[in-house]
Structures are given as C-alpha cells and as structure tokens.
Design goal:
Chain B is α/β, with parallel strands linked by helices and 343 residues long. Chain B contains 15 helices and twelve strands. The N terminus of chain B is likely disordered. Chain C is of the alpha/beta class. Classes of the chains: A mainly alpha (314), B alpha/beta (343), C alpha/beta (337). The interface between A and C is large, with 43 and 59 residues.
C-alpha cells in the first residue's frame, strides 16, 4: 500500500540526490565506526593485548608458572632473581614470579567487579536523576554528594576497620567480596555524576525534542534516544576506572585493610615487603611493576575509547 | 585618540608604497586519515591601505584558513605547502616566531565570529583591553586604563567608564563584539581581518557593528579583510571581492562589477539564488548539488559538477584566473558567455 | 486551495518562565516573559512568516505550537480544539497534524539511528498510519520526495551534508501527512548555495500536500519570498502583522522599519545614499520589559504616552493592517518594488 500522492511526487530531478562525497560506500553506525577506528590504533591495541594477557593469567595462572605460590623454602628467603626463579624469592622463601602471576586474579577480579557494580548502580542513579529532573534529581544529587564528599581512602579505612572483626574466617573469596563491595560503595558517585550530566545533555538535544513532537512515549525516548547517546561517556569512565580501582585495591591492601593473606595479591605482596625495601627491592618491585602496567593499560584503553566515541572528532 | 590610530600610518623605513598585504599563490594542506585535504589551493590576493576586501565563500571554501595563515594561527595539522604572505613587502611565512609576534596585534589584528569564546572569562574586559597597552607599549597601569576606556568609548560602548570592571558574560553579544573590536584596533593595526564578525548577531546589531567597522576604518585608514558568506554584507561595505570555492579564488573583481555582471557561474548562481521581490511565487534559482569534498576534488574545474556552462574542457583543464578586463579576473573557461548572459 | 478557513488559531498566548535562585530551596525571583499575549490565525495552505531577533520569543512560540511546552495562559485552537488542554491519546493524535522542521540539521537527528529509522520513527509511534509491511516502502518514497536517494536508507546522519540532513528532517516531519508544519529557522544553518534548494523543496511540498507553514526566521528576504503573511515579533509580542506587501512596502511600526533598513541589500548600487535606521543598544531583557510600549527604549519616536500606555495591535489610521504603535506611520524603507 503506497501513498499514491507521495509516489507521484518523485520528480525532484533538479536536486542533487547523490550521496555526499564524504561517503565511501560502507554503512557504519557511530559505534562500529568507533570500533573500526580503535582497531587501527596502536595506542588501543597494545594496552588491549597487555590487558588480555593479564586476564589470561588471572584465569589460568597455572599456564604461566609451574611453581606453587604457597610453597615456602625459608632457606631461600630474599634470594634475588635467578634462572630458577626469575623474580627471586620473598621473605618466606616463596617464588615471587609465581606469586605475581597468582596475584593477578584477585587484583583483576576486585577491580573489574567493583567497577561493574559501581557503574551499574551509579549509572542507574545518574540516568534516573538526569531523566527525571525536578525534585527527584535534587534528592538523588544531594544523596550522591554525601558519598562524593567522603574522602575515598578515609571512607574505606572506616568501613573496612569496622568490618575487621567479621572478616576473620570468611576465606579468600569472602575477603575479596567485602573489599569489592566497599570500593563499589565509594566509587559509584563519580559514575552517577557523569551519567547524570550525559543524560542532561542528551535530554535537551533537538532530536529528543523532535521525538517528543512526534508523540514518542517516555520509554521510547529513553531507550531509543537517550540511552544510546548517553552511554558513551559512561563506558569511558568505566574503562578508565578499572585501572584506578585496581590501584585503589593495592593501596587498601598496603594499608592492611584491603585484601590480606591468605589472598595472594600485588597489594599484599607490596605491603608485606615494604620494610625490607633497602635489603632487597625485588619482592616489591615485580608486583608493583605488574600493577603499574595493568593500571596504565586500562587508562590508555579508556583514553582511546574516549577519543573514538567523541562525535566532535569525526 | 587620533594619535593611536595614526601611529601605524608611519610606514617603515625603506618600505615603498605598494600593496599593504599580499597573499601570493598560497597552498595549505591538512593531512587527514583519509588523505590530504587541500584546503587552500593557490590563492592570491592583495589589500591596499584604506580598502576593504571581502573574501566570500561557503564553509570549507578555505576563506578562514587563508586568514589563519596570515595571522600565523593555523591549526594543526594544517600547514602551508607553498606560497608567500607579504606584509609591507616582507614575507611573514619565513619569519621566526620571535620576529612575527610583534606584528600580531600591532600591525595585523583579527576579530572572530564568536566573541564570547575569544574573551577570557576570568578577567574584566577593561583589564583585557588595558593589557594590550601594557604588554605591547609598556604603559603603566593607570595610563593603560585611561587608554582602555578611550578604546571602549571609541567602539561606542555605552557608559564605558562604569563598565570597565565588568566581565565578558555581563555583556550582550553585540557589546562583546565591540569589545573584541576595541582590543583588535587598540594598537592601531594596519590590517584588520574580520572573520564572519556579525554572523552570530541579529540584523539590527549587525548593522551597528558593520557601521562601526566602516567608521573605524575611515578614521584610521586600515586595510580591512572581511571574511563572510553574506552577499548582503559584502554589497554594503566591500571595495573588492574575492569569491572562493573549494580552496581557490574563482572570481576577483570590484564590488560593483560583480553584482552587475558576475563572470563566474558560481558567483552568478549565488547572486541569482537571493530571493527577489519581482520573482515571488517562483522557484529560487538554486545552485545544484553540493560543495565538493576536499579529499575527492573533481578533476579540472572544481565547480564543473554543479555548473550549467560545463563543457568537456572543464572536466580536464583547471581554469586559470583569466583577465576579464579592468581589474577583474574569473577562473572560468567560459567567462565571456557567463558575463554576456548576465548583461 | 482555500485560504479563508483557519486551520490554527492562536489566542492571547502567554508563556512565562520562572526565574529561580537557590539550589535546594528554589526561590522565585521573577519571570521571563518569553511570549506575552500573542494572537494570530493560520489559514489552510498559507505560510505565515514570523520574524524577530534572538530572544524575542519566536522559538518559544514554536515550542508552544508543537505542544512541547505548556502555555501559562491562552489557547491554541487546531480545527477548533484547544491543543493546550489535550493529554494522552488525544494529544498524541493531534501531533500527527502539527509537525516541525528544526534549525540545526546536525543536532536534530539522532546520530545513532539510520536514516530509515529516523524517517520511519513516526510510523512506529503512530502504527495506525502505515501497516507494518508498508513502512519501508513509505520511507523510501519520503526520501525520494525530499530529493534523497532511497537506497541510502541504511546510512547514518553523519554520512550526509548539512543540506541533505535538513532534507531528512523534512522527510520525518512529512511522514505523518500533517496539516501544519512549524519551520523554526529551517535554512539559517545551511550554506548559501544550499538554502535556495531547501526553500524550493519546502515550497514544492506545500503546493503538493496543501500544507500550512509557520515559518520562523530572522532572514527577512527569505521570509518575504516564502510567506503570504508576516508577523513581526519584539520582546514576546507581535508588533505588526500584515501581508508580505504591507509589511515590506508600507510598514508602520518603527521596529519593523528599523529591521527592514538594517538588512544588508545584496546590491552595491547606491549604497552610500541608502537610508539606514540604526537602532541604539540591544533589546531589553524579557525578564524586565519596559512599561508601556516595549520598544520605546530604542524608539526615536517615543513620547510620554509610550511609557504609560501599552499600544494595542490594531489597524491604524495610517494603514489598514494591525500595528502596535501609537504613532504608526507608513514609511517605505526598502523601496524594493
């Protein structure tokens, strides 16, 4: 059923109807365009390979070392790197390489999980506040500011020390979950702020006005117009946050309130050997280097994603 | 006040009268990830003292890029691949940044379309104008303030003295553009480049600003380069017009000649597309098609895909700027036809 | 085409935006009188041009007519029904009849939707207009009507130029076969050589579909070309309304005269001797408009009565078309005819 009146009108021959010369034939959405962009950037690919490697290490640590990270031989305490143990031995005579390999898992799990939780919760609050506006926005924003005003480390110290007693006897997994939850609890307001401002910017855009003018329902406006366009900044902050959360985990562990033995983690390793730095730096140096590389890799990925998703740059 | 304005009229030792500013065969390239965009492709024009040259073109025609080269503020990754810009006979492009810096503001100044983003929001406008005098002329705080207030009066800011300590956001768009003009002409430049100075303003305010520029130019005998897309503004103030299309000048002529009988199909198309009272109810004469992509420039004459005068020659041979008589030039193989049609 | 039956009647339309201070406890410290008592009729198949400078309230007026904002007072009657009172289903049904074309083709299209999705969205929102199977065909026809290649249905907005994007916006506005299209500065963001193409398209579509246009613009020469009647707006009020010839050849309001004389004429002949009325200063803030006649602070004719008495928009002795000036006099500033 075609509209005869419209069909009869196909005669704007004088107009140029050819494609804009900008078009090169491929049809790509901004998302896939951004993806193609990223795949051509060494500043994205290199950190991506690094992160991929560490994720692999976290999942299958056994593939990368035969040594048992828990096996201690006190006679080898603080021995330096050798062909036998590439990163040397720590205070209790355990293989530093093996412990660095096995330390990847808690660091990466805690980092990504905390970011995931913070992004889901914080993003949701921010999206609701930005979309609803009015008193709901005021209420949620003030609530967010309370958490935002809390200094991160101080907040973590208070909560984790309060929980210190309940933490004994819950095992490695329990410790990791508690640290993850605390970090997510303190990290979400940042995501909320970014999600809210992204929503506000999109909400007032002309195409949302146009959709309202067509009679689009709020559900349609949120899912077709607002979310797809507000998502980019949230994704960027989430990617960058993984790096900062991993390093935050190390800081908390270093302070003795984050992960703790029996969990093997980079932060724990650094904390355990900080006093011995002058005698031998290697038990601190190698986990610290691993930590730095992962954090920088995530931040670089975040930067590359930000650049690729910024519509102003295209 | 006149002192400031005429200081600049004293020409430099050894400099013989001639064009004040010459752009000579300028080429500017922007490397992009899809290839090299030739934003400016052999542009030449000259500006005499006290004259107004309008550079007319659409977005992407290269009109603003040329001005950025003259000012030495070309954005990365753009670079000049060939050509010269001579100010009073000296090539600006071969000067070191150190030699060039004193010329900026002192000899050549520029105003932009967006006055709000060109002013520093954290300083008062009076301070920003006074700063020009303190930095470039080494005046004391008090002298500089006195001069700044004089400048604010000169661009007809009402109650200049009382508004010296106001911040940019406290002014309206038109008033901010006046402040920009005050800063640009503060040091009595010989050349003022105005890049779409009234595009963001309402018509009644636009009329005020154009009137102000015209008066200031007459008082100080500056050369004015007016970059615009507005045929009305050009007709109002220009002495000469250079019409740009796809990085080239396609027509260059005194203003009266161009409006009376354009010698290039693009200029002709632009003038004909203006709504006219006697043609109400009829279709406007629209130029067909779209401006070309600088990365995929058409062969031969860049305008040929949109041109009603196109022949096979246009698709292969790039037209030179033909001498059309008098001081007129047109980059069209068929300029005789075009001019005859217009008459 | 009948020109005498109003499709849209606007009556005493008022929109005041509250000015508030404070973050948690918002205090009302005043209001911006964006639209302050506007009345006009729009006939079927007619184009009403609304001209004015930024801040005069013309964009708010467009939003009110699109029911994107609720007015503080007044009525907008579409075929006799007051659309400002509509809600839910009836409001949605009304939206099929009044559509718009926006100014900026770069921000008015969702960058994450394909052209087919954008132009087809009206059908998804109003499924009764087009059965599911026919939608794609309809979208292709619409693209063809506005002069775009129907095969580009799967492309994204960023792959098109400004003029082509504006055509996409026009196709979207046309999809529901509205009676009225509100065009808010539809060509001002486009390159000069493209503006004429889009104006021609709008005129062609009007003849074809018997559309009525509200054409809001600051470019007076384009308005003169396309409009049957013109309303001049200043500080939330219409100051003069008339046919295009009345407004351009025998304007009686000083503001209209100043506006017309400020427009640069694209012809250098006689430019030195051309009459120019240069207004002093900027328009006053709509938060604090002058008493009496709102134009009196910039008017060269202002007298005591202008400060005390608000002039009505009514026919004056000088000319039969309504003008909001105590001292209305015909003064042809353009001499264009």
């Amino acid at each position: 059923m075609s509209d005869p009146q419209i069909a009869a009108m196909s005669r704007h021959e004088d107009e140029d109807r050819s494609a804009h010369p900008e078009m090169t034939g491929q049809v790509r959405s901004l998302w896939s365009d951004a993806w193609h962009d990223l795949l051509r950037k060494p500043s994205f690919l290199i950190p991506l390979v690094i992160v991929g490697l560490f994720v692999l290490i976290a999942i299958f640590p056994g593939l990368f070392t035969n040594a048992d990270p828990e096996y201690a031989e006190l006679s080898k305490s603080m021995q330096g790197p050798s062909a036998e143990a590439w990163f040397g031995y720590d205070l209790q005579g355990r293989d530093v390489f093996a412990r660095t390999i096995y330390g990847a898992r808690p660091s990466i799990i805690v980092g990504t999980l905390a970011v995931l939780l913070a992004t889901l919760f914080g993003g949701l609050i921010g999206i609701i506040a930005g979309y609803a506006g009015g008193w709901i926005d005021s209420l949620l924003s003030r609530f967010t500011e309370i958490f935002l005003g809390l200094p991160y480390v101080l907040g973590a110290i208070i909560i984790l020390s309060a929980l210190a007693n309940t933490r004994s006897g819950i095992g490695s997994f329990g410790i990791m979950m508690i640290v993850t939850l605390v970090m997510a609890l303190l990290g979400w307001p940042l995501v909320t702020r970014i999600a809210r401002s992204a929503m506000l910017a999109v909400k007032h855009s002309d195409y949302v006005q146009a959709a309202r003018g067509l009679g689009a329902s709020p559900v349609r406006i949120v899912f077709k117009h607002l979310l797809p366009n507000a998502l980019a900044p949230i994704i960027v902050i989430a990617t960058i946050s993984v790096g900062t959360f991993i390093s935050a985990e190390a800081v908390l562990s270093f302070l003795g309130i984050g992960l703790r033995p029996p969990v093997i983690s980079w932060g724990v390793a650094i904390a355990d050997h900080q006093n011995l730095m002058r005698q031998a730096a290697h038990p601190v140096l190698f986990p610290a280097a691993a930590l730095t590389v992962v954090v920088i890799a995530f931040v670089m990925i975040g930067d590359a994603v930000r650049e690729a998703l910024d519509p102003k740059l295209r | 006040m006149a002192e400031v304005a005429h200081q600049a009229d004293v020409t430099e030792v050894g400099y013989q009268a001639g064009p004040l500013l010459e752009v000579d065969n300028l080429h500017v390239e922007f490397p992009t990830r899809d290839g090299i965009a030739r934003a400016v492709n052999g542009v030449s024009y000259s500006l005499e003292q006290g004259k107004t040259l309008a550079v007319l073109g659409e977005s992407g025609s290269g009109k603003s890029v040329t001005a950025q080269v003259i000012m030495g503020i070309l954005d990365e990754p753009g670079h000049v691949s060939a050509g010269e810009v001579r100010f009073q006979g000296r090539n600006l492009l071969t000067m070191s940044e150190k030699e060039r810096r004193p010329l900026r503001g002192n000899k050549i100044a520029m105003i932009f379309q967006d006055a709000l983003s060109s002013l520093n929001p954290v300083f008062t406008v009076g301070w920003q104008i006074a700063e020009m005098f303190r930095v470039h002329q080494g005046l004391t705080r008090r002298e500089a303030k006195q001069k700044a207030i004089e400048m604010m009066d000169r661009v007809r800011l009402p109650a200049a003295k009382n508004r010296y300590n106001d911040y940019p956001h406290q002014f309206s768009g038109g008033m901010r553009q006046r402040i920009m003009i005050a800063m640009a002409i503060a040091l009595g430049p010989d050349v003022l480049i105005a890049d779409e100075p009234t595009t963001a303003l309402d018509v009644t305010v636009q009329a005020q600003i154009m009137g102000l520029l015209h008066d200031l130019q007459r008082e100080s005998n500056m050369g004015l380069i007016l970059i615009t897309h507005d045929l009305g503004v050009v007709a109002d103030v220009a002495d000469d017009i250079a019409v740009m299309y796809a990085g080239r000048i396609v027509e260059h002529a005194p203003v009266h000649d161009i409006y009376r009988a354009p010698a290039h199909p693009y200029t002709k198309g632009l003038i004909e597309s203006i709504p006219r009272v006697d043609l109400k109810g009829q279709e406007l004469h629209a130029i067909k098609g779209l401006p070309p992509n600088l990365l995929r420039m058409p062969s031969g004459c860049a305008f040929h895909p949109r041109c009603p005068y196109r022949t096979d020659q246009c698709m292969t041979d790039t037209p030179p700027l033909y001498d059309v008589g008098g001081t007129r030039h047109s980059a069209c193989h068929h300029w005789t036809e075009v001019i005859d049609d217009a008459r | 085409m009948t020109h005498d039956e109003p499709v849209l009647q606007v009556r005493d339309l008022v929109k005041h935006f509250p000015l508030t201070q404070g973050v948690v406890f918002k205090r009302r410290i005043g209001e911006i009188k964006a639209v302050d008592g506007v009345s006009f009729d729009l006939n079927r198949g007619e184009t009403l041009g609304i001209v004015g400078e930024s801040g005069c309230g013309k964009s708010t007026l467009a939003k009110l007519m699109m029911a994107l904002e609720r007015p503080t007072a007044g009525q907008i009657l579409f075929e006799g029904t007051d659309i400002t009172q509509l809600k839910g289903k009836t409001l949605k049904a009304m939206r099929r009849k009044v559509q718009m074309v926006m100014q900026d083709p770069y921000t008015s299209l969702n960058p994450r939707m394909t052209v087919g999705d954008i132009v087809g969205e009206p059908f998804q929102i109003h499924p009764e207009v087009a059965p599911k199977g026919s939608r794609k065909q309809k979208v292709r026809e619409l693209l063809d009507v506005v002069g775009l290649d129907p095969d580009h249905i799967n492309r994204y907005p960023h792959q098109f130029s400004g003029g082509q994007r504006q055509r996409i916006g026009i196709a979207r506005g046309l999809a529901l076969r509205p009676d009225v299209i509100v065009c808010d500065e539809p060509v001002s963001a486009l390159d000069v050589s493209i503006q004429a193409q889009v104006i021609n398209l709008l005129e062609g579509l009007q003849d074809e579909f018997n559309l009525s246009y509200i054409f809001i613009a600051h470019d007076l020469s384009i308005v003169r070309h396309i409009a049957d009647r013109v309303a001049v707006m200043y500080l939330g009020k219409l100051v003069e309304v008339g046919s295009d010839a009345e407004i351009y050849e025998s304007p009686t309001h000083p503001y209209t005269q100043a506006l017309l004389s400020a427009v640069p004429v694209p012809d250098p002949e006689g430019r030195e001797s051309r009459e120019r009325i240069t207004l002093q200063g900027d328009p006053p803030s709509p938060a604090n408009p002058p008493s009496g006649c709102s134009f009196r602070t910039r008017c060269w004719k202002a007298q005591d009565v202008c400060a005390s008495e608000v002039p009505e928009l009514e026919p004056r002795a000088a000319a039969p078309h309504p003008s909001r000036c105590h001292f209305a006099e015909v003064h042809d500033v353009v001499h264009a005819s």
